[in-house]
Amino acid sequence: xxxxxxxxxxxxxxxxxxxxxxxxxxxxxxxxxxxxxxxxxx
Length: 42
What we know:
The protein is mainly β. The protein is built from no helices and 3 strands.
């Protein structure tokens, strides 16, 4: 059974843009499965 973990944080740049970065990785092997970066206009 594989365990997936994720790390996410958000940054706001003067209230103009929101940015989210998420990294999915395997907790057992510490291998990064995917990296997701999203810009959200506000």
